[in-house]
Amino acid sequence: MTTRLTRAAAHARPPAPVRAVHLGLGAFHRAHQAVYTMADPDWGIAAYTFRNTELPRRLAEQDGLYSLQVRGDGEPQAQIVDAISRAHPGSDTDQWLADLASPDVALLTLTITEAGYQVSGDQDSAAIGRVVAGLRGRHRASGTPIALVPCDNLPGNGGVLREAIRTAAEGEDPGFRSWIEDHVSFVDTVVDRITPAATEQDVANAARLTGLEDRAPVVTEPFSEWLLAGDFPLGRPAWEKAGARFADDLAAYEQRKLWFLNGAHTLLAYVGPALGCATVDEAVGHPVLAGLTESWWDIASRHASLPAEDLTDYRQRLLERFSSRGVRHNLLQIAADGSQKIPARILPVLRAERAAQRMPEAPVAALAGWLIHLRDRPVRDPRADELVSLARSTDAPRRVLSTLDATLADDRELISAVEDYVEHLRLSSCPTG
Ligand SMILES: NC(=O)c1ccc[n+]([C@@H]2O[C@H](COP(=O)([O-])OP(=O)(O)OC[C@H]3O[C@@H](n4cnc5c(N)ncnc54)[C@H](O)[C@@H]3O)[C@@H](O)[C@H]2O)c1
Ligand SMILES: O=P(O)(O)OC[C@@H](O)[C@@H](O)[C@H](O)[C@H](O)CO
């Protein structure tokens, strides 16, 4: 019988003192920020998830440890990550408040998905409401400054978080609100490491690679990038030891990441299943989808800020990453939350193309694929009910697009191109039809 992964069994160091808190404990945090933090042994993480109770339970049983399988095209490599000192479910509210109030804690990282930044409904249980509650306690306890470091795929994620916190704190004590302005630093980031959800097979592989039973493994690719811009008033881990880079302005890099990588992912996630593909590597191996991806990158390159040589190299590298069979990234996972992703990944390029009087095929294909997805597949999206009903109504392309951008929805030529493409995809996905 294989021994369960614990600090004793892995001969790991004792947990480092908690100086960082994370919200949104999932696969990506563990493949990315936790790995960078591990490079600085003075910093431990208290990691929270308010939705998933199983993962913190499994991690707690393993003293916060898990194995990270790095899978490229060669033999997979496994390492034990020991940066998480404590893992908590959302029901540990008192501990969450205590951690955020602690002057030993210098920063809070977040991976709460794009949808998590919305401020509406039941604020006390939503991610932003919980952060505001934590900050309120910190203000009362000591008023020590803190850095908030969002690591989700959103343009200007530091600014998005600042606005969400300001909105959620409206109506609070003015002293608290002005403390937020003066003592809470919002750091912008560009994050990149393709990390699909782990499978049962990955659990079996973890045991084979480490000799220990790991019930919470993470599988990721060799590539990793973290760019940050902002202040850390109480210091930060030496993330640069693991390759993090600091800059004043991330806009051009953020555009490259969101348009080229995430935009292509979104295109493939919606068009791929219509052509019988289930994963990213399968999709980029399909001649039609490979052509659409290249065409998307050509179009995006016309409007991107970085020099052409940078973009050419980036595209080449992306194609290698997408084609790798080391990480099999499920298109349905990427397809979740389209209403939150399409505006950042696809629409800026589409608007620029329409302003130049062009009708670009790839963004039209992405929107047509999204419509089919909304009509025919299980939809995970904070606006799912509304979108599914609109997608099944008459005049669906215009009505669905109007939820994202009223001006584009009034563009008759565009709506008609999307309608035609829906039909085109239907015929392509049905060889006898
Ligand atoms: N997986 C990747 O390759 C990758 C790469 C770069 C960035 N990211 C960012 O990280 C996010 C999480 O990815 P993951 O792979 O860890 O996913 P995951 O499903 O493993 O974990 C998601 C975490 O977010 C929480 N969450 C989900 N919806 C939420 C909501 N509406 N409000 C608050 N919390 C919510 C979940 O409870 C869980 O803790 C992505 O949405 C993306 O923004 C992921
Ligand atoms: O994680 P999401 O849901 O925001 O988007 C799905 C993928 O596009 C994304 O996870 C990429 O793999 C990642 O951004 C690569 O760094």
TrEMBL record:
InterPro entries: 6-PGluconate_DH-like_C_sf, 6PGD_dom2, Mannitol_DH, Mannitol_DH/Oxidoreductase, Mannitol_DH_C, Mannitol_DH_CS, Mannitol_DH_N, NAD(P)-bd_dom_sf. Keywords: NAD, Oxidoreductase. The keyword NAD applies. Belongs to the mannitol dehydrogenase family. It catalyses: D-mannitol 1-phosphate + NAD(+) = beta-D-fructose 6-phosphate + NADH + H(+). Pfam families: Mannitol_dh, Mannitol_dh_C. PROSITE patterns: MANNITOL_DHGENASE. This is Mannitol-1-phosphate 5-dehydrogenase. Residues 19-241 form the Mannitol dehydrogenase N-terminal domain. Its EC number is 1.1.1.17. It comes from Saccharopolyspora taberi. The keyword Flavoprotein does not apply. It comes from the Bacteria. Residues 249-424 form the Mannitol dehydrogenase C-terminal domain.
